[in-house]
## 1
Amino acid sequence: MTDSRTVGQSDCSRRAFFGLVAGVLQSDSQTVRQSVDSLPGTGPSGKLWDPSRAGRPFDPVIAADNDAAIQAIEKQIHCTCGCNLDVYTCRTTDFTCGTSPAMHRRVVALAAQGRTAQQILDAFVQQHGVSILMAPPKRGFNLAGYFVPSLLIVAAGVVLTLVLRRWSRAAQPAAPGTNAADVPASPAELERLRRELDRLSG
Amino acid sequence: MTVLGGLCLWLAFLVGVWGALAGFVGGWQGRRDLQQSARHAVFALCAALFVAVAALEWALFHHDFNVEYVAAYTSRNLPIFYTWSALYAGQKGSLLFWATVLSLFGSLAMLLTARRHHALLPYVAGVVCTVATFFISVMLFGQANPFHRLAYTPLDGNGLNPQLQNPGMVFHPPMLYLGYISITIPFAFAMAALLSKRLDADWLVAIRKWTLLSWLFLSIGICLGMWWAYVELGWGGYWAWDPVENASLLPWLTMTAFLHSVMIQEKRGMLKKWNLALIIGSWLLSIFGTFITRSGVISSVHSFTQSNVGYFFLFFLIAAATVSFAVYAKRLPLLEAEARLESMVSREASFLFNNLLFVGIAFSVLWGTLFPILSELVQGTKVTVGPPFFNQVNIPLGLALLGLTGIGPLIAWRRASISNLQRQFAVPVTVGVFTALVLLVGGMRDGYAVMAIALGGFVAATVVQEFARGARARHRQYGEGYAVALGRLLARNRRRYGGYIVHTGIVILFIAFAGMAFKTETEATLRPGESAVLKSPYGWSYTFTHLGVSQYDALNRQVTAATLEIARNGKRLGVLTTEKRQHVDGFGRPTFQPSTEVGIRSDVREDLYVVLAGLVNGTEQAVFRFTINPLVWWVWYGGMIVALGGLIVMWPGGGSPAVKRTQAGYAVRLVGEP
């Protein structure tokens, strides 16, 4: 389809720019208006005018597609089409992908054979290696993946606590003793002053 | 015009090299002529790069398909709105955009801080020119010249990827780039302070303001990216822990840590080493993010086409990290703290733990992002690290951080007394516990969701308490009405109360994230007139009735639209349309695979998210995916509130507490304070 407003143009004036921005926005709003063209049970149904525009033909949804157990398994399997998504997300998102529907059919077939979730995952790992799993299995070096951040944070927290304790102990003797007698103020007044300063400085 | 653009790139390269040399040598030797020349070089660099950008836009708008970049990312029928954004849609154009914006920020730094930070500016100019020159050299020597011409001229271009033809993609990348790029300025000031040994409070003022600006841009960019992913990609979520998403989160986390710890340096003269390390780290992480996006070393849905520019970035990253930390290490003796922490129960201590968590989360995200490479190196097996891994590691850390968001502001500086703690914590803790009880009694059983909402209640109560106490104090002292007192409280303490507004936004975001734990979805095949029913987590039922499919032509696409009528508990709510779009070039030829446009109906409680998966055997019988996403609107509201709070904090005139005290004409030191 060509659009006379944008073909071979050299019209990048401000007016043309805003005119076309408005055109884009208007075309989107028209999308909504044009599409309300039939009512339930009364509107046209049957063949599409041009099926090729709607992407690849789809099979009707079957019960296994909505099976929570199947979905849970598919959410642990990495789609191999290069999308970086799990099989469930890919097959319900990228409707041009032919890989995730095939992997879905395999999961459904294995489940129909009575295999457990773990057995199905193992079958995929056997075929593709552990990279087929969305998260590495918790064994061997992979344990480092799971626990190094938490262990480091805990270790850093312990070190920080010890350092802070040492600093605060070192600071304690000096604070009340040295100059307090020089100041004609009671502890309550000093505390109030400190609060006011805190409030002032945010 | 494109010849001029190419020449300007070379000119910018030469000017950049000169600016870098003049800046460093001029600063080192104290030569005014070289310092002035470096400053002018930044302006000249900016002018040359702007001409190059204008030349590329000229080629894009004039459909000069002999230019490879124009042919690759535009077509004759591409709406002009997206023709403009094609500037940064591809690798080469985005490199030019990056260098140009960096030179613009550098020029602004030269103009806005010429008097105040004149001693630092030669080095700042040197750093800006070095980084900009690197980006230009990638274009010139890394086969990424946006003005490269083809041996022939195609009749039409490939057009822009349909997923990029979305208003979110017009605004999201520039915002993210602005965030990434502007981090170079605080980094440049940090390096200038280190190189010039001027490590007094002066550099801190400049760094803090620029970091706030970067943080604000990055926050907005990340939120816009989430919105784009949600409305355009069609998977029903907004964050997938993709490596490129992670790369944008990393500098945001470290900059947020800096914006907290810098307060300790301002007030107590502590944490100088840590703050400088955070700024250097943030900038290196921004370059790391660029490396990940452009190298293809880690697979990502967002990556640019793989090319050899990744090696340039890797080399630059290693060289920059080595030089930066070498200079940093050499100046460590000059960065001793002026005071020591006095108590474990103090705001300083809570900020330190807050920093620990921010940096810890950044580390865990970085660790997870790089773990596939590490695994391949160590055990020879590449593993996939997806959302299950990141959620497991980061959700508990995020909740701990949310708790500290409430705890930090309630604890006094220096040392908190028991009475102070009781007074500050009584109401917020009660609110948090009460919220948790209500949720548990109400039947919520998702542990993380309960904790997120209860902690959110606790933090929100701290914010309300702080505002209420401040307004009451003004009301008592000045006799102002509560509304006026609240307004003036905010206006006169922008940093503090703007920060509380940011905290409010974060609370809203966390609660919204918790809502996704109750996401519900189903797939259904419907003929016109047939319905599917989906139960909402709130208890009511939605009925989706398929009305029919229509096909029509729009600007640069052929549309197949399915319309559904929606009813809640039998009461009609309206209609919703979801589409398949086949994009075509100027001659009507299909350009990309058909893309999907999601139909979304939002309200404050939940989103109805409907996707037309496909049509059965070329008929109107359609396969739909229906999803109910609770609380998604609050993600966008939360993001807006965070941005608003950030704007209030950085709005000029508030001044730092130290400056305000000095301006007030008095200086007070507590007993025992050095």
## 2
Amino acid sequence: MNRHPPAHKTRLTALVAALCACAMLGTVAHGSARRNESQQVKDLHYGEVLFYFYQQQYFSAITNLLTAQQFQRIDHHRDEAELLLGGMYLSYGLHLQAGEIFQRLIDAGAAPEIRDRAWFYLAKIRYQRGYLAEAGDAISRIHDALPGELEEERQLLQAQLLMERKDYRQASEVLARMHGQSAWAQYGRYNLGVALIKAGDSAAGTALLEEVGGKPAADEELKSLKDKANVALGYAFLRDAAPARAQARLEQVRLDGLLSNKALLGVGWAYSAQNQNQQSLVPWTELQKRNVIDSAVQEALLALPYALGRLGAYQQSLQQYETAIAVYTNEMARIDSSMMAIRSGKMVDAILQNDAVNEMGWFWRMREVPDAPESRYLIHLMAGHDFQEALKNYRDLRFLTQNLDYWTNNIGIFGDMLATRRLAYEKRLPRVLQDERSRNFSELPARRDRYAAELVRIENTNDVMGLANDKEQQLLARLSRVESTLKHLSGHEDISAAQDKYRLLQGLLFWDVSSDYVPRLWQARKELKTLDQNLAETGTRREALMRAQADAPRTFENFSARIVQLRGRVTQLQSRVQAMASAHGHFLEELAVAELTAQKERLAAYLTQARFAVAQMYDEAANAGRGTK
Amino acid sequence: MKDRIIMHTLKRVRRAFVLLSLSLLVSLPPAVSVADTTGKPQATQYKGLDQQAQSLKKDVMELNRDLLALEEELLFPASTQVAVFVSMDIGSLFELDAVEVKLDDKVVAHYLYTQREIEALRRGGVHRLYLGNLRVGKHELVAFFTGKGPHDRDYRRGATLEFEKLTEPRYIELQIKDVTRNLQPEFRVKEWQ
């Protein structure tokens, strides 16, 4: 038996870090989580939870963990399991439950490293829910550096909290302590830069954003952040009437990145502000070729004729305004028909039609935009946080529907099985109890005792022949019959030869048995011991049978009641899930319609401006014509 | 004259554009998204909906816990329950393909592992390969591991365990370990109590 099974390497800490990081920071930490702590799996069922967890099957991981806890199978990992559960709950948005778990761990005096992590997660929960003072209190209770990337995340959270208190100096100091190349530090500096500019400290904010925007970026995530910083800087410089600096920053933005349209638009305005109208045509003409649903492209449709006007190309300018008017009008009509399509209620299912719903998950992201006319207007909305969160919930609810359907089917099977088992039991038990062997069981101990007493007698009296086997017993009986016959014949005939033969055979038999006496006695004792064991086992089984006879009806009733109760819960949850899915679907549609309405309003504003400009041009041209007459 | 008026008009239009463009900066969200406290009607409405969804998820998870417990107690009562688990320690000397388990000379499980599952095993996860029932008494378990061994060679190894099923659940772990001494994988069968 192995009471101390071998070690398996795990990296719980960093995983929980990744989990909780994702709760707060989207997918920022997911790809870069590193496992840098190892520990031993001492309970197989905890390992089973990790098996699902590592495959990102979190629903299965949570339900297995809850079941293992109920059966008390993961006692060696009690605190770690709680921490893992809290982390998974937190990432599902179950703040209340996660908070209770972390608070419980702290109150129960968990080990310092677990306590520190629990304080950290509590700080995050409080921060997310807007309890900033309480979050600050929780983070101040962390004594030691947290493992792995958690420490950087803690520093970022601390900096965020300081920024919320407008303590930019300290926030800056905290961020300065973070490793320069760390993605967390870069995000922190970006946020601080934006916060400072918004707070009016342009110089400090600009310096931070320039640092982020000027650093070489190794991966897509940091490249995007770099683009973001440069776009933010570019527009800040434009606002501060520093077009040359704006141009320099905006030209750093990748042409194929998500922010390239905004950057091109800004570059155009930077040229324009420096009276380089000819050059401003280049980015705006490029934008004109791009997808018109982008607001920067829409704005460029107006900016281009403006630049042409400044260059004196009035005819071309007028043509471009008219083109813009046609495009805006066309797009507004398309938006109207898209709104109708969305209100028909098919949008969400179209988004998820190719998605295999086999797990719930907060790492899930929509990979493909559905092939529908309205999709082109909703790309930005669909990539946005609100839409993604609601869509994830909707997807999770679809998963829950499947899960509950599965249990509806299975619970019916459980009921059938229980009925079959009860029937079989009711039929078999009386038969078993009435079986002759079963009925004679009470005599067995007495028979055993007689056997044991006989063995003692043989041993005490040295009754060698008492251990003769069946064949020898038969021979002994035959010799006994021979002896009687010889006695009967004695005095009538000469039987001396026969008597000699009898004595010889009797001697031989005795010799055979007595020479084997010791091993036979040992064998007899061994058999008695085996008999005792068998009797004890039979007794145990019989007792179990008797107990089953007494308990089974209660057990069946208990199972039956549980099945009925659980079936009721399944049915009730099914209707709740259905209603909730419908509410989420409706919310997503409303979100989409609101987005389309905003887009339509923006187009309407552009359309008004374009028409106004055209009208002005015609008026001025007409007035000029009258003047020359 | 005409030019001047058009320029004037365009200047007004341009100012409007610059304001629109600068609004982009304001609309740039922080890179690290935080709780939205802007009080937008949509955000408020969604917060309530989201809380209801989370509460519902928790209720379904707890229901699953109770159903899994019922399933196990009903189908695999402790007195007859036997579970076979697979674990892997490091696992760099053996690329696992499949495991087959025989109990008392009868195949009870044959499982093909995906790359994702193997990675989960390597990271410390333990796979419950089989859950079933056995009578009290002596039994024999034979496990066969197939995959690629060192030097990319096909590998098939067996491991055996004779064990006694008592009235408590019996857990058996099939371990795949690297033996660095001879650079060979090792397969063991262990009983847990």
